[in-house]
Amino acid sequence: MLDPIILLPAAINGLTMGAVYALVALGLTLIYGVLHIINFAHGSLLMVGLYGVFFLYRLFGLDPYACMIVLVPACFAIGYALQRSVIGTVSHGRDQNVLLITLGVSIVLENLALYLFSADTKTIETPYALDVVDLGVALVPLPRLIGFVAALALAAILWALIGRTDLGRAIRAVAKEPHGARLVGIDVEHVYAMSFGIGTACLGAAACLLLPMFYVSPHVGNVFVLIAFTIVVLGGMGSFTGALAGGLLIGLTESLGGLMFGESAGQLGIFLIFIAVLLFRPTGLFGSRLS
Amino acid sequence: MKSGLLAVGIAMALAVPQVVTSEFWLGVCIAVLLSTLTGAAWNVLGGFGGQFSFGHAAFFGAGAYAAAILEMRFGVNAWLAFAAAGVVGGAVGFGIGYLSFRYGLRGSYFALITLAFAEVLRILANAADFTGGGVGLYLPLQVGVANLQFATKAGYYYLALGLGAGAILVGWMLERSRLGAWLVAIRENEDAARALGVDTFACKLQAIALSGALTGLAGAFYADYYLYIDPGLAFGPGISVEILLAPIIGGIGTVWGPFLGAAALRVAGELARRLMGDAPGLSLIFYGALLVIMVKFLPDGLIGLLDRAVRPRGIHAGGAHA
Question: Most A CBs within 10 Å: which of B285, B290, B298, as the mutation test of the A interface?
Answer without folding.
Answer: B285
